[in-house]
Specification:
Strand order of the largest sheet: 8-11-12-13-14-15-18-22
Distance between the termini: 40 Å
Helix content: 25-40%
Shape: globular
Bound molecules: zinc ion
Radius of gyration: 22 Å
Number of helices: 18
Oligomer: single chain
Strand content: 15-25%
Largest sheet: 8 strands, parallel
């Protein structure tokens, strides 16, 4: 039993905004009070107490990030290292930290739950193995679905009910938590070297299936299956000049359904071409503010080295052509694909400067912190361990303006960031880094400090240098255990996985089995991840609504 005393508590989910209040912990959970001689105390007087951070969109495990790690040995050579010690195992940080280092680095900045945002069903087994090697943090993952050939064929034939069963079967086969759509139709078209840029245009090889159909049907299926997290959507035309119109159309298609818009920064551009790229964050934020069915994560970029990895194969081919950097391309049979290109964002580059501004503009122009969350689409926009730099930019308008004024003049003309005075409060930071993403993920024991919550607690020194404060928490507790002190890993605990078991008609297996015989390189029975592999997983059974 443990009591944290004297800290200023920020627990937005329970309406607590900086009150001095004790937090009591017993058996790994927050409780109303603890009594007796066995109670240990952490004196947090003068400190700030947050619920542990929750990352709604990151890439930390599976085939794509592993490929990215292999493609950047030069980065690993210079990266911060974890050495083998009685507490930690060896690992490298940098743009694509290795599994153990990923757990240490997340916990080291106060994050205790992460959602791996893109898992092809076929490589789900690999993903879970890596998640298991990612210590301390709890985990969930979203399964890639919007370019699955079986599913698109069913939508073409109008067999919506069977499509729903296939989605449910795939989520359970992958031991996933949510459904991810990446460039709906575009990755399927990429198999023929094409893309899907117009929402109303049939996807290559189909007559009726358009990106809009895929988006609307998947959002409806996810709602119908009662998945705790809505459709997690990477829109068409990621990264392309003028793509804000596609994003606005996509949000219109989603009316009447819940949806999470991933890395919105990459989808809020105006202009005709790279030479005229501009910010349309204001228009995106205006629509978004008026539509409470939507949540989003920022996908902000920071200047420096990154590695871009995405299932959006056609975009990655274009990025390779634009940069001449290394390019990796994977096809995952019938299901999805993946492209990898190392990338360096430069402050003096007008396009990169506009991108940098757009991420911050969205965070500042979207009014409700419960609907926009802090991410960099790790490792795409920047490494997750750089989040404290963004917190600093959000909390201090003078510091931000200083940085904005260093951007190229052309970038200043095409952005509105210089005019924005908003400063985030600590309560708002707690919302965009923890309470909001936990609610959007549908994790009732995460993102708050009320009785019944998991005892994931981060305690910071109240340092006016907000970057330093959020980079190095005084204490981090995971499930009631002190895992980090003064930024150092003190104890390593195992995180658990959250998975869902949606309902489906078992006869869908009779439908799928012959398709596997004909088209897949793995047999049907070898395809699903065995539940035994996910020891200690939190399994939520769902009924159809
Ligand atoms: Zn992503």
């Amino acid at each position: 039993m443990l009591r944290i005393t004297g800290g200023r508590v920020y627990d937005p989910a329970n309406g607590i905004h900086g009150e001095v209040k004790d937090i009591s912990i017993s058996g790994g959970s927050i409780v109303a009070a603890v009594e007796g001689p066995g109670v240990r105390t952490i004196d947090a007087t003068g400190m700030v107490v947050f619920p542990g951070g929750v990352d709604v969109h990151t890439h930390v495990a599976g085939a794509a990030i592993n490929f990215a790690r292999a493609m950047t040995p030069e980065d690993h050579r210079t990266a911060a290292k974890f050495i083998h010690s009685p507490v930690t195992r060896a690992g490298a940080g940098g743009a694509t930290p290795t599994t153990f280092a990923t757990g240490y680095l997340y916990a080291g900045m106060g994050y205790t739950t992460v959602n791996e945002a893109a898992v092809p069903v076929l490589s789900a087994r690999h993903t879970h193995e890596e998640l298991r090697d990612t210590p301390i943090v709890d985990k969930s993952c979203c399964v890639l679905m919007a370019n699955n050939e079986i599913l698109l064929d069913l939508l073409e034939q109008g067999e919506v009910e069977r499509a729903r069963d296939v989605v449910a079967w795939l989520v359970w086969a992958a031991k996933g938590y949510g459904v991810k759509a990446v460039n709906p139709g575009g990755v399927a078209a990429w198999k023929w070297g094409k893309d899907a840029k117009i929402l109303s245009q049939p996807v290559e090889g189909y007559q009726k299936v358009t990106p809009a159909v895929i988006i609307a049907q998947l959002a409806a299926i996810v709602d119908g299956l009662n998945l705790p997290h809505p459709l997690h959507l990477h829109c068409n035309n990621l990264g392309a000049p003028g793509n804000f119109t596609t994003t606005l159309e996509t949000m219109k298609v989603l009316e009447g359904h819940r949806a999470h818009m991933a890395h919105l920064q990459f989808h809020a551009y105006g202009g005709e071409d790279w030479g005229s790229l501009s910010s349309e964050a204001s228009k995106i934020a205006e629509y978004f503010n008026a539509h409470p069915n939507l949540t989003a994560d920022a996908g902000a970029i920071l200047f420096g080295n990154s590695v871009t990895i995405t299932a959006d194969g056609p975009w990655q081919h274009l990025l390779y052509q634009l940069t001449g950097r290394k390019w990796g391309n994977l096809d995952v049979e019938n299901e999805t694909g993946c492209g990898i290109v190392p990338y360096t964002y430069k402050g003096g580059n007008v396009v990169n400067a506009v991108q940098w501004a757009v991420g911050l503009e969205l965070l500042l122009l979207i009014q409700d912190p419960w609907r926009i969350f802090l991410t960099t689409d790790h490792p795409n926009g920047a490494c997750f361990w750089r989040y404290p730099e963004i917190v600093h930019l959000l909390m201090n308008a003078d510091f931000r303006r200083e940085r904005v004024m260093k951007l190229p003049a052309k970038a200043l003309q095409r952005t509105v960031l210089a005019d924005l005075d908003r400063e985030y409060s600590l309560a708002e930071i707690a919302t965009i880094t923890s309470a909001g993403p936990a609610r959007a993920l549908g994790l009732p024991r995460k993102g708050h400090l009320g009785p019944g919550a998991d005892a994931d607690v981060t305690i910071y020194n109240d340092d006016p240098d907000r970057e330093a404060m959020f980079r190095s928490p005084r204490y981090v507790l995971k499930g009631g255990e002190v895992v980090v002190e003064e930024g150092d890993i003190k104890k390593v605990v195992e995180g658990r996985e959250f998975i869902v078991q949606p309902s489906f008609d078992k006869s869908v297996e009779d439908y799928l089995r012959p398709l596997f015989e004909d088209y897949y390189t793995v047999t049907f029975d070898n395809y699903p991840v065995e539940v035994e592999r996910l020891e200690g997983a939190d399994i939520r059974k769902l009924d159809i609504s």
